[in-house]
Amino acid sequence: STALVDDQETLSYKQLLDRSLHLAHSFSEKYGVKSGQKIGFLCDNHASFVAAVFAASRLGAHVYLLNIDMSKNQFDHFAARFGFDLLIYDARWHDSIQHSNQITKGLLSEHDRLPSVRTLSKTPGETGKKLARASAGSIVLLTGGTTGVPKKAVHRPSLFQFLNPFLALIDRLHLSNCQTAFVATPLFHGYGFAVLCAFFGLGKKVVISRRFYAPTACRLIREHKVDVVTVVPLMIHKMLVHGAGDLTSLSCIASGGAPLSPKLVEAVSKELGAVLYNLYGTSEAGLNTIATPQDLAHSPHTIGRKISGVRFAVRDGAKKSYAPGIVGPFCIQNSWSAGRSRSWVDTGDAGCRDANGYYFLKGRVDDMIVSAGENVYPLDVEQVLSSHPAIECAAVIGIKDELFGQRLAVFVQPAPRAAITEKALFEWLRPRLARFQLPREIVLVEEMPYTPLGKLDKKQLKKRYTARGDG
Questions:
Q1: For the chain, which terminus, N or C, has the lower number of CB atoms within 10 Å?
Q2: 262-272 vs 378-386: helix axis angle to the nearest 10?
């Protein structure tokens, strides 16, 4: 049966297994890869990437999933810090890798002439020679995206450890009833790779494409009659705009990685029915809550209820949990957290829960704005703004203010062909926000900046604001 479809080829489960085993032999014989070594991956979504990760894991190597969109300077920093024994990378990184002093062994993922994962995977090694048994190495995710100093989130593959999130995906998303999944999110982000492995565990077909492009995504969903797609909210929006008619085969849209707007929840429901699911997790703590379409009908703001095996608390460090309705830091304890199953993981997010066990995300703790002594969470204001029919997208940042300490600056991207003014928006906001939530300034922009993962890039917005001479 079909296991994997990428932009170039279709592989059965036997072909994927054979390629992974051929690669494992080649990695061992030609590159000296053995248990405990570090292999970095700098790849878009394609079959060679997937087969190489499985091969590295078979040898007991530690797999480091790197952000393909990082700068060369950031890569050199990571390579020096982690000391990769082998780096597998896409061709567009070739010149940078060749001139890097940090990489002693590198292998292209795909190439017509030079040695590559793709050619090695089709060339049997000494398959008669038995591979040494090795326990699976770690999967290492680097948090922090393309900016800042990343933290390692180390996950040790274990069927027993990951049984609860695996069963939660199957049960709440009804994956056993589905046949084909399209993983639109980057595999290096972890979320995409986790869903890919879940579908492989069920023996289903998985479709991937190098980079997300809405017209291509819509075509793939239509041609392969895809049941399930993993996305970030921006991807859903772009696909709906391009062609909602291509998405009618979907019975599950699994959204994660960024907050869902109530407007998008309503748009999906109107166009496609009750198919949208909101997943909440982190690189360190993995999957922890799921909101079903019925949960989102109850409240489009919710990230749902916690899954089995999770202790989820709104609490301040070692202090006891906050009462329902009180906003505070999200802290999580589960058996599949990155090496910290017995301790509380501070997610860095803030939110609250209600009396019915629904959780609500308010945003990053660091994003909270203290204005005249009042705590303001940008997401609350952004969700109000997104309900305006003439607004495509809105983002809120904190700016210095001599009187209030901090005030809010709002960036607004108008909807196509919408006529909107700052003055009219101020008037519209006044009855809908508390006084301390009202912005000092509204800035209209043609287009919002996004990170490669589809999150609003507020660091870029702050730079824009500062460059205007106002911040």
A1: N
A2: 40
